[in-house]
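Quick check before the chapter quiz. The format below is the same one you will see on the exam, so make sure you can read both the input and the output lines.
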Amino acid sequence: MDIASDVKEQSRRLAEQQREVGAAGIGDVAGAIHSAADELEPKMPQAASYVRDAADRIEGVASRLKDRSLDDMLNDLGSFARTQPLLFFTGAALAGFALSRFVKSSDSTTVGERDAL
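Here is the expected output.
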């Protein structure tokens, strides 16, 4: 194997691991949302129903993420980008914005922790 093949294989393994970790994390979020719905049920049953529906949808995302291969997801993403370019680029921009905010908030937390020491 040459270096390019090694890097490609390592990248694929890392992406598959991250897919699995992401699916598990999303599943955990869905579980927490279900718990919140259970707590809402006695006082606000209608709101609990909406929250439970949201948790079910999030569980569906986790399940699809867990059950599909990386190649399948990339093919679907490419197909979506070709058929809905405006939605794809809008979603990519929003995801980039959210990621930059997350990184920025994580960085400021780290700086604050260093200042406290």
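If your answer matched, good. The helical segments are 3-40, 45-67, 70-83, 85-116.
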